[in-house]
Write a structure and sequence with these properties.
The chain has 79 residues and is mainly alpha-helical. It contains 4 helices and 3 strands; from the N terminus they run βααββαα. Helix 1 crosses helix 2.
């Protein structure tokens, strides 16, 4: 039976922003609004995000904003 991966990759805001092609301020905004929860902090105090989970969430937010034309408040209710 294959083992489930437990070594989830954590990334800082800057790297997550590059991976998703947005500004770090966008990631900060989504975090402040409660749309993108952080998964911990680095020893230096930087926010850390589970790469896979955060990318999935960002795709959902982008879809709801772009295709469904939902506001941040409406998206909050859906997530």
């Amino acid at each position: 039976m294959p083992k489930e991966r437990t070594d989830k990759r954590l990334v800082k805001i800057g790297e997550l922003a590059r991976l998703f092609s947005v500004l770090p301020s966008t990631i900060n905004f989504y975090t402040r609004e409660g749309l993108l929860p952080e998964d911990g902090r680095s020893q230096g105090g930087y926010r850390l995000y589970n790469e896979e989970k955060a990318i999935t969430r960002l795709k959902k937010i982008e879809y709801l904003q772009t295709n469904k034309r939902l506001t941040i408040e409406e998206i909050k209710k859906m997530l």
